[in-house]
Design a protein that fits this description.
There is one protein chain. By secondary structure, the protein is an alpha+beta fold. Helix content is 24%, strand content 29%. Among the domains are: 97 residues, no CATH class; 195 residues, no CATH class; 296 residues, no CATH class. It has 24 helices and 57 strands. It has an 18-stranded antiparallel beta sheet, sandwiched between helices. Strands 36, 37, 38, 39, 40 and 41 form a six-stranded antiparallel beta sheet that branches. Strands 42, 43, 44, 45 and 46 form a five-stranded antiparallel beta sheet that branches. A hairpin with a 2-residue loop joins strand 37 and strand 38.
């Protein structure tokens, strides 16, 4: 109907145009001096009355003839012409205003477009596909996020994420992760809205251990746009999508997105957007029928609702191994996990806390001992000791899984054979009967309950062991038999804080049994209190429990314990409260990336229980930071060889690479974001040195100059690949370190020349009037170069635009010195500063000694002057740092308990937000940072030596400090 109305309006608009043309022609004919009436009639079948020609307008001589001719050719017209000349249907209707018809047409057209879009969106909403259809079922881990943005955006800034991505398993995605962490898209509300959708992610592990993924986003109404992408995006160019390409193959088409060395495969499929990291899993995904391979139980687990933002489904055995990998004994529990079943893990994590829960199905089978089956088949109960535990407890482990006898029968088969557990038990039985007249069963089982605890108390390193007492009368009878024996010494003389604390010496066979579980109690104090008996080598620990509980100072009032217990269930077979400063639970003793990430949260509670034939694991932990927070997760990185200590930073607007050399003659390049390291072995001979300098003012960013001491010059990209036309070989060996000026590298030669090598492969040699040789790097400031001619009668030569300007009158150096001069400009004047080994500091202004100089500084100097553009800085061998102003004022700071005979001093601006700071490497392995006024910078000193480099490694948009160490490591420090 709407479509017909639009066509009708279009026809009327066309008719209006045609009729206006007809009327124009008719008017032209009627006003013509001679007109053929028949022609007028034929062109305008219905002539308006106003079109008749008045007689007065026709000449008299021809009027009669014209009328006669008309009468012969045309019948006489009736009085009412309208009766005999039929009109088109509706001709008498009042015609609409053309403007109104145009507005109506536009309105109907817009309405038609809106309805068409609405119909397309409705189709897109209802024409859906299950995300599981695009996810092959042979995954190693399945992750569901109900809102990708709400889940992932906070995770990007986590220190735990830095640790996980430092693992080799995730290095292939670290670069993309860090790039997105620093991306301005994260502050874009449109992106946030678009990404606030459900995402299903499946990880796959190939036979060679490589990890791939398939991710599926549920687009909902937005799929109305994504379905058009294959038809639109290939024909338009968007700057932000320059790395996205459209690929058409036989029977299929998709997009490829390249990020560094990684390639991702993307395709819209109905209401879904699918992305994969490898062609193989992408091909499986595109079969689009994978949901038929999922079991109903698996689908139920995947769609299960949780309180945490991340929901993970994975193989049950692999999930268990993630928690018990650090304990050989618990690793054997994998036999109770059902084959081909899936466990569920829910995760919520921030930098301040982590909450994790897992549920893993257990099963009884022939491989599981009956003693273990008995324990896992019962549901866990509430441990009674936690409600009466002292507030002075700093960590605890509570076992509430079964009686002492049941624990012994379940644990002994799991102990390593070489521990000879059964043999020790048999020996203990014999000795107990012989010495005490009772078996170990009577000694241990007759009075004990189901709870056994280990407690750590404040103020002492001696742990406390507690056992539940269910029959106090039997306990007293057993203890009386023990004390009546001449082999046990019972000392009841100690009374501490109002409680008597007897002490007993345990027999050797009993110590041997305790050693199976790494418990040492040769002669403990003991106390029976609140239905438990407590043992400890520390009497103060026992009295602390007694007094604090009587004063109602309970652990339930501990702020940290309450914080990590809010989400815990009361039921538990094993409950652990820990503080990593005091104890490390078994699941944090491994070396995996997950273990390292969880170790960031120093105080936590972990409860393990059994419910409905499933193992239930709950962990809540909070970050009460201990240790060095400056260390970037994933560092230090172990190096292959000893480094020379001088880091070189890529010269670019946003530097991303750092360079260094390792002996012998190996160059290293590291992309900071991904921590990927490239290596180039120049295969130099023994004793040969490689000098590095970052190229600047070049068409291509990230170029690096590398010059060997034998005169081979390399120009390398940031992946250490040689540029076309390089390397070049100079005609002379190199006498010292190099420096850069614009697009060139300045190379001092043993021949006495200064070679200037450009990126265009041109080489220019400037002859220098030297007495000795140039042993240090040329100093460069804009178009000015200064070189130190090292000899007993040394001097400094100044070059402007490649010409020595003071060949006849070089700046004299009174004595031997090390290093390069410092250059600075003030008010169009050039200042040159230099210090000798003996401490004579000279400053020349425009070639003349500045008033007040030279001045004598105390100490021996193996480094020369550096400048931040306003003041001069120098480091003595006894670690004294001097700041000298151009007016001669001296400020000094001493680095305590240090020397700096082999130290280095450098001035660097870490990034655009920083002023230039001073970095001092002393003898040993410490790097200090100072402000221009010699105030120690926050975060310093750090472990390392040499010249640092500053670049953002973790995507937080602030420069981090990279420094090499003497023990062959690369460190990265957060100095903010």
């Amino acid at each position: 109907m709407l479509y017909n109305d639009i066509l009708s309006d279009m026809e009327e608009l066309n008719n209006v145009d045609e009729k206006s043309v007809v009327f124009e022609k008719s008017d032209a004919l009627e006003t013509s001096p001679v007109s053929d009436k028949s022609n007028v009639d034929s062109e305008s079948p219905v002539a308006p009355e106003s079109s008749e020609v008045p007689e007065s307008s026709v000449p008299a001589a021809t009027a009669g003839a014209s009328v006669a001719l008309e009468n012969q050719k045309t019948p006489a017209m009736p009085e009412n012409p309208a009766e005999s000349i039929p009109e088109k249907k509706g001709r008498n209707k009042k015609r609409r205003n053309p403007i109104f018809r145009f507005i109506r047409f536009v309105f109907l057209l817009i309405l038609f477009i809106i309805l068409a879009i609405a119909a397309w969106v409705a189709f897109s909403i209802f024409n859906k596909k299950n995300p599981l259809a695009m996810l092959p079922p042979d995954y190693s881990m399945y992750v569901r996020m109900d809102s990708a943005w709400d889940t992932l955006n906070p995770l990007l800034d986590l220190r735990a994420a830095d640790i996980l991505l430092s693992s080799p398993d995730f290095k292939n995605i670290r670069g993309a992760f860090m790039a997105f962490r620093a991306s301005p898209l994260r502050q874009n509300p449109v992106v946030a809205q678009l990404a606030s959708r459900r995402v299903d992610l499946a990880l796959y592990t190939s036979e060679d251990g490589k990890h791939d993924f398939v991710a599926v986003m549920e687009l909902g109404p937005l799929s109305a746009v994504s379905r058009l992408a294959p038809f639109v995006l290939p024909h338009i160019k968007i700057k932000q999508l320059k790395d996205l390409s459209y690929v058409q193959s036989v029977g299929d088409s998709y997009f490829e997105y390249k990020s560094g060395d990684s390639v991702f495969y993307v395709k819209p499929c109905r209401n879904l957007l699918v992305a994969a990291s490898s062609p193989s899993v992408f091909e499986k995904s595109m079969r689009a029928n994978n949901d038929t391979a999922y079991t109903n139980e698996e689908i139920e687990l995947i769609n299960q609702k949780t309180d945490e933002p991340v929901h993970i489904v994975m193989d049950s055995k692999k999930l268990l191994s993630a928690f018990v990998s650090g304990n050989d004994m618990l690793n054997q529990l994998s036999s109770v996990i059902a084959e081909n079943t899936h466990g569920v893990l829910s995760l919520g994590i921030t930098d301040s806390d982590v909450n994790l829960s897992a549920k893993i199905p257990c099963t009884a089978n022939d491989q599981v001992p009956e003693s273990i089956t008995k324990l896992i088949s019962r549901n866990s109960t509430v441990p009674s000791i936690i409600n009466k535990m002292s507030g002075r407890v700093q960590y605890y482990t509570v076992l509430n899984i079964g009686s002492v006898q049941e624990l012994k029968e379940a644990a002994f088969p799991l102990l390593p054979k070489n521990m000879n557990a059964e043999s020790l038990w048999s020996t203990g039985q014999t000795m107990s009967k012989m010495l005490f007249g009772m078996t170990l069963d009577e000694l241990l089982y007759s009075w004990t309950g189901d709870e056994i605890c280990v407690l750590g108390m404040e103020g002492t390193d001696s742990p406390v062991f507690a056992i539940q007492v269910t029959d106090e009368d039997k306990r007293q009878k057993v203890f009386k038999k023990l004390m009546d024996s001449i082999l046990l010494k019972d000392d009841t003389s100690l009374i501490l804080d109002g409680v008597r604390l007897p002490r007993v010496g345990l027999p050797k066979f009993f110590e041997g049994l305790l050693s199976l579980f790494k418990v040492t109690l040769p002669s403990p104090y003991y106390m029976v209190f609140e239905d438990f008996i407590y043992f400890s080598e520390s009497a103060q620990a026992l009295s602390g429990i007694y007094t604090s509980v009587n004063e109602q100072n309970l652990i339930a009032k501990n702020m940290y314990w309450r914080e990590v217990s809010e989400k815990q269930s009361a039921d538990a077979a094993v409950s652990m409260y820990y503080n990593l400063e005091k104890s490390v639970p078994f699941f944090l003793r491994g070396d995996s990336a997950v273990t390292k990430a969880l170790s960031l949260y120093s105080i936590g509670r972990c409860d393990i229980g059994f419910s409905d034939s499933s193992l239930v694991f709950n962990l809540s932990a909070t970050a009460r930071h201990t240790g060095d927070l400056r260390a970037i997760p994933g560092f230090p990185i172990k190096l292959e060889g000893a480094a020379n200590g001088n880091m070189v930073l890529e010269k670019a607007k946003n530097p991303a690479y750092i360079y260094w050399t390792e002996k012998p003659g190996t160059i290293k390049s590291m992309e900071a974001a991904s921590t990927k390291i490239y290596s180039l072995d120049l295969k130099v001979s023994s004793g040969e040195t490689v000098y590095l300098a970052s190229a600047e003012s070049t068409p291509k960013q990230g170029l690096l100059w590398a010059v060997t001491s034998k005169g081979t010059v390399y120009l390398l990209n940031n992946k250490l690949e040689a540029e076309k036309g390089f390397p070049l070989v100079l005609r002379s060996a190199v006498s010292g370190p190099v420096n850069t000026s614009g697009s060139t590298v300045l190379v001092p030669l043993e021949s006495g020349d200064l070679a200037i090598v450009d990126t265009d492969k041109s080489v220019k040699e400037i002859s220098l009037p030297l007495i000795g040789q140039v042993k240090s790097a040329p100093a460069v400031l804009d178009r000015t170069i200064a070189v130190y001619d090292k000899s007993f009668a040394g001097s400094i030569l100044i070059l402007q635009d490649g010409v020595v300007t003071n060949a006849e009158n070089p700046l004299p150096v009174d004595g031997i010195a090390f290093g390069s001069p410092a250059l600075l400009k003030k008010e169009e004047s050039l200042y040159v500063a230099f210090i000798t080994q003996a401490g004579s500091l000279s400053v020349w202004k425009d070639g003349e000694m500045l008033a007040g100089f030279p001045i004598q500084l105390e100490g021996v100097f193996y480094n020369n002057v550096v400048t931040d553009g306003s003041a001069l800085y120098v480091l003595s061998s006894d670690a004294m740092i001097y700041r000298v102003s151009l007016d001669g004022a001296v400020l000094q700071v001493h680095v305590p308990d240090a020397t700096s005979r082999e130290g280095l001093i450098s001035v660097i601006a870490p990034d655009e937000e920083f002023h230039k700071n001073l970095y001092v490497s002393i003898d040993g392995n410490l790097l200090y940072g100072f402000s221009g006024s010699l105030e120690l910078l926050s975060g310093f000193p750090v472990v390392g030596f040499g010249v640092p480099a500053f670049v953002d490694v973790n995507g937080d948009k602030s420069a981090d400090c990279f420094v090499l160490t003497l023990d062959k490591k690369l460190n990265a420090w957060n100095i903010r």
